[in-house]
Amino acid sequence: MNNKDIFKALSCQTRINILKILIKNEMHISGLARELKISVPVTSKHIKILENAGMINKRVYGNIHLLTTKVKKFENILETFIEQSTIKVDKNKSIFEALKQIPSIEIKKVENNYYIKSIDGEEGYYIYEVDGKLPKKPINEYNINKKIKIDLKKLVSIRKKEINININNKD
Q: Strand, coil or helix: what is 41?
């Protein structure tokens, strides 16, 4: 599996529809074909592409193929594009001191604490993780005393549902 497979899998509306259906329910290929209003052989071809991209699981029981999504896969699709930096700081300096070395990170002071305001000019709400764990203190209070990896993550609103509301014309 590589990025080419992932982008190929996401380049077709039918495959996107398959993923949307499988996020909600585990299904077999014929049920999926029926819901999509396409043939089983066509559905199987789309499933094969999604499998090659590592986006779905297929469990086989005799001639029944049950399909589910690998939701975690969706979270990791863009990992390839993450910008990486390496910086050096003196022992017991804060993460704030380390981040000041990166010009594309803007930090904001709120009362006595410092928070990440923007990265590459993109404002928003940011959190940080240290070695995969979410610290319970602001960046100016977390002192570095060993080699660590910091992940900066922007909290992004992802639409889960769209609701259109109409007005009743009854008086």
A: helix
Distances (CA, A) of 68 to 39, 41, 73, 95, 161: 19, 18, 12, 40, 20
pLDDT at 23: 85
Q: Which stretches of the chain drop beneath a pLDDT of 50?
A: none
The fold of the 82-155 domain, in CATH, is Ferric Hydroxamate Uptake Protein; Chain A, domain 1 (2.170.130)
CA dist 71 → 54, 68, 75, 87, 130 (Å) = 10, 9, 7, 33, 24
Q: For residue 120, give the 3-state DSSP assignment.
A: coil
pLDDT in tens, 14-27: 999 999 899 888 99
